């Protein structure tokens, strides 16, 4: 995608302002560098007009702070004017590495704490911005997206809270169930798939992968993620299979019904490389169980791929699975907090999403369509063709 030729036909919708909260600082800094680099080189016939005031800057990040009182309460403050700005707020609700003092005790920040901080910054804007877009890669409370009994609908409530505070658009990645956007039907909601970044990351680190139907297969670990696997399989022109989770609905363990067995539906995986793709790795038990079942069926190398690598129970079980030859590579993005231990693992492939997010922000700021960014079909085809050509040479 030619950086300097994109978005030149439309005027920017207000001065661009980027507000990565502390939970998303590292990713926000990378996004900012891309935006600064592109706009420094970009030329436009009307660049001297008022519409392009402050178009080129050394940084688009607006300084903010969320200080806390000794009681654990907090306030949000913005340390620069945002009047008339097109603001993009970034928050990682899963970043548990951040702490705060509560009556002398050290507390790790929960998703609820991060979401409250996001609302504090929006409240500090006070309606002065031209437009507010929230980029929340791991959608807050997305696992509680539907009601099966007398339960709270936390994800829908969270979205409605943001809209009520003046948020115009919400951008998330690989939402657990995109239908939750029905809670805010009159506002913008985009769920972005990082399929291109997954294939790019794997091709960059594994040079002997054969991307054809005879040597590769895509697997969904459950029925809920079938659409994700179907898309990737169709783009690559390979077969797909899925596992059906048989659960014990008479028990609840850690807030869910325990899995009794994984039943496989699909053609033979014998001798094939396999990509298991899902939206998240939480404890990792399900992924490892599925990989184990595939190994029993004589699969060759197994790639465990997920948008969000939470690893809530640590990395020990993955270390063992790799050592035992069950898993070959683990692939996730930097959309959520990554521990130094995870980044140090040789079997781990990190897919950087900062350039993709910068493209989305740059495009939206110019009020241009992001349809081509949301559907990476053509980019994946070009990547696969280049990869096969490199192999042949």
How does this structure look, described?
The chain is of the alpha/beta class. It has helices at about 25-40, 110-125, 155-165, 195-205, 225-235, 285-295, 315-325, 340-345, 355-365, 370-375, 375-390, and strands at about 15-20, 65, 75-80, 85-90, 100, 105-110, 130-135, 170-175, 190, 215-220, 240-245, 260-265, 275-280, 300-310, 330-335, 350. Helices cover about 30% and strands about 20% of the residues. Residues about 1-5 have low confidence and may be disordered. The chain is built from eleven helices and 16 strands. It is globular, with a radius of gyration of 22 Å. The protein folds into two domains: about 5-195 and about 355-375, Rossmann fold (3-Layer(aba) Sandwich); about 195-350, 3-Layer(aba) Sandwich (Rossmann fold), CATH 3.40.50.
Quick structural gist:
The chain has eleven helices and 16 strands. With 393 residues, it is of the alpha/beta class.
* Overall morphology: globular
Question: Which strands sit side by side, in order, in the main sheet?
Answer: 12-11-10-13-14-15-16
What structural class do the secondary elements suggest? Answer: alpha/beta
Query: How much beta, percentage-wise?
Result: 15-25%
Please tally the helical runs, counting DSSP H or I stretches of 4 or more residues.
11
N-end to C-end Cα span: 24 Å
Radius of gyration: 22 Å
**Poorly predicted residue ranges:** 1-5
What is the top-level CATH class of the largest domain?
Alpha Beta
By DSSP, the count of extended strands is 16
| Helix and strand element order | EHEEEEEHEHEEHEHEEEHEHEHEHHH
* Largest beta-sheet details: 7 strands, mixed
- Helical coverage, percent range: 25-40%
CATH T-level fold name of the largest domain: Rossmann fold
The assigned CATH architecture of the largest domain is 3-Layer(aba) Sandwich
Mean residue pLDDT: 90
């Amino acid at each position: 995608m030619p950086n300097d030729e994109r978005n030149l036909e439309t005027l920017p919708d207000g001065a661009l302002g980027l507000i990565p909260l502390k939970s998303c600082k590292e990713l926000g800094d990378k996004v900012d560098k891309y935006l600064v680099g592109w706009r420094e080189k970009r030329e436009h016939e009307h660049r001297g007009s008022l519409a392009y005031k402050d178009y080129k800057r050394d940084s688009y990040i607006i300084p903010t702070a969320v200080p806390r009182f000794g009681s654990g309460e907090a306030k949000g403050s913005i340390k620069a004017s945002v009047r008339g700005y097109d603001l993009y707020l970034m928050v990682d609700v899963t970043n548990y590495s951040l702490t705060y003092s509560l009556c002398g005790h050290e507390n790790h920040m929960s998703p609820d704490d991060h979401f409250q901080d996001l609302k504090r910054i929006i409240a500090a804007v006070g309606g002065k911005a031209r437009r507010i877009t929230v980029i929340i890669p791991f959608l807050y409370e997305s696992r509680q997206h539907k009601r099966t009994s007398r339960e709270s609908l936390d994800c829908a409530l969270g979205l409605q809270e943001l809209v009520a505070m003046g948020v115009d658009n919400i951008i998330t990645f690989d939402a657990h169930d995109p239908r939750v956007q029905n809670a805010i039907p009159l506002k913008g909601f985009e769920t972005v798939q990082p399929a291109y970044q997954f294939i790019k990351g794997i091709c960059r680190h594994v040079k002997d992968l054969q991307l054809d139907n005879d040597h590769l297969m895509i697997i969904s670990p459950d029925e809920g993620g079938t659409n994700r696997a179907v898309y990737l399989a169709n783009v690559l022109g390979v077969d797909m299979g899925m596992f059906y989770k048989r659960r014990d609905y008479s028990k609840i363990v850690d807030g869910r019904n325990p899995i009794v067995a994984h039943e496989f539906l699909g053609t033979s995986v014998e001798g094939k490389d396999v990509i298991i793709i899902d939206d998240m790795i939480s404890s990792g038990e399900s992924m490892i169980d599925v990989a184990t079942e595939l190994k029993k069926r004589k699969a060759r190398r197994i790639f465990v791929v997920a948008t969000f690598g939470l690893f809530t129970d640590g990395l020990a079980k993955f270390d063992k699975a790799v050592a035992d030859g069950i898993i070959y590579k683990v692939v996730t993005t930097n959309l959520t907090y990554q521990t130094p231990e995870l980044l140090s693992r040789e079997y781990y492939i990190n897919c950087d999403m900062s350039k993709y997010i910068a493209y989305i922000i740059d495009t939206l700021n110019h009020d241009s369509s992001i349809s081509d960014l949301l559907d990476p079909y053509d980019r994946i085809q070009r990547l696969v063709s280049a990869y096969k050509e490199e192999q042949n040479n």
